[in-house]
Amino acid sequence: MKDSITQIQQKTEEILTSYPIFQYGFLPADEIEFREEVRYICRQECERDDTSWSCPPATGTVEACRKRCLTYREALVFTTLAEVSDLTDMTETLETRKDHEAIVHDICRQLRDAGIDLMALSSDSCAICDKCAWPDAPCRHPDEMLPCIESYGILVTAAAEKLSMDFFYDGSTVLWYAIIFLK
Q: What are 175's strand-pairing partners?
């Protein structure tokens, strides 16, 4: 079993070399911390809460999300960087997400092509559609949707700390996170 994890890590690292990844690391999936309090961000600060298949309540309870994640053995946590003129300008900051999401999608595609089963989460709620079908119809792009890390109740700062990864860079650089759970 350990050999298969090592092989998955090696293949994943080969793929990562093709992308502008700032930092990355691997954690056993059961070392990822899930907390209900993380969803406070969703409820209080995110306008997409209860409007998207990638956000609560559509993602399920934190416990259901934890169980879903723990069906995978390992988590790849990685970051990309994007320069902005002012980190507090949310329009400019969120615009940089597209490049990060494209990288996450490409990495997932290559991992799947290599026969690796995975589930990916990213730094913000899905924005593929101008208006999500939630709650009236199924997701139009379930294979492309990237739920938000926080929507799963994951304490990304704890994962970053365990991996000695930066959580803040500087006042003009956006640090985007992704977590890809691997089997």
A: 81
The pair of structure tokens assigned to 155 is 């304490």
Dihedral sign for Cα 22, 28, 29, 31, please.
negative
Q: Which stretches of the chain score pLDDT less than 70?
A: 1-5
137-149 pLDDT per residue, tens: 999 999 889 999 9
Query: At 108, which amino acid appears?
Result: C
Residue 147 near residue 61 (C-beta atoms within 8 A): no
Residue 179 in 3-state DSSP? strand
What's the CA gap between 151 and 40, in Å, rounded?
A: 10
Q: For residues 128-163, b (16+ Cβ closer than 10 Å) or e, as one string?
A: eeeebebeeeebeeeeebbbbbbbbbbbbebbbeeb
Residue spans of beta strands (DSSP E) within the chain: 23-28, 74-83, 118-122, 173-182
Query: Contact 97/79 with Cβ under 8 angstroms?
Result: no
Q: Helix or strand or coil: residue 148?
A: strand
